[in-house]
Description:
The protein is of the alpha+beta class. The protein has 2 domains: 28-169, TATA-Binding Protein (2-Layer Sandwich); 183-303, CATH 3.30.1330.60. Helix content is 24%, strand content 31%. It is built from 6 helices and 10 strands. The protein has helices at 78-91, 109-115, 183-193, 215-227, 245-265, 290-296, and strands at residues 28-43, 58-73, 95-101, 132-141, 144-155, 160-169, 195-198, 233-238, 273-279, 298-303. The strands form 2 sheets. Strands 1-2-6-5-4-3 form a 6-stranded antiparallel sheet, sandwiched between helices. α3 (183-193) packs across α4. The longest helix is centred in the last third of the chain and has 21 residues, at 245-265. Its main location: membrane.
Amino acid sequence: MLASLPAAAADVSGAADHPLLSRFKGAKIADYKVSAFDEATVPVKAIAGRDNMAPDDLKQLEGKVTRIGYVIEGDKTALEVMRNYEQALARGGFQVVFQCAAQRCGQDMGGFLANSGKVMPAGFNASFDDKNHYLLTRRTGADGDVHVLLWVVEDPANKRVLAYEQVIEGRPMDTGQVSVLTAAELGKKIEAEGRVAIYGVYFDTAQADVKPASRPSLDEMARLLTSNPALRVYVVGHTDNVGGLAPNVDLSQRRADAVVKALTALKIDPQRMTAKGVGPLAPLATNTSDAGRTRNRRVELVRQ
Length: 304
């Protein structure tokens, strides 16, 4: 099934092609969104099923994200549209990261792209047939990596091709907008609520190694535990729901274990801490939006 997109007599208000890539001749923009700094989860392997994805099936990117949904009316094919994009991207210095079509994309590529909230408009649902084409490319430059994702689908019932484009320009976000909670602030939240969410512990996508940028938050957690020697805590890892339940529970457990290990290195008695990963099972917000998924990815200290 192909969800109903509006007829593309004209571009939606405020829409424009990305400066790096022009549209296919005759295409109109039916959906458009630009985020100055956001995340994008892009497949780098075939997607056999959303509940059985491995962490390395996906790559998480951050930066300026432009999402454009094009409608191409007439007798064009998905293959013709994709071949034109391939040639344009190659001329622009982009290298293929992953490319597939039809069965080689796995039976649930369209379902993931449509329902992850990361690429296509909410509600779009591409049937799996031999007219679907996926392409992920990357270009490295002085200002960082730029990724272009394309998903091109034929809609024969409406005599059109749908082309979804996502451009992710890797760049640092504006910093200084959020400060690390101090040990005293962490203590007040635990005293009042029995737990505190910490967003300053960082990991690479699908990885469980604590990144060096996490040190300020780890230091404050260590100060909290040092100044309250009777306090025992659960260190709980949380994820969003992208990637399936079992892989996310496993990832969150490994991340919780890594935080306990990092705090132990800061001279906190490991007997005072119990690591537990619950994956996406205790969200603080909806997983249907970028903002909600960001809020759900966290580490919590919970009083035992």
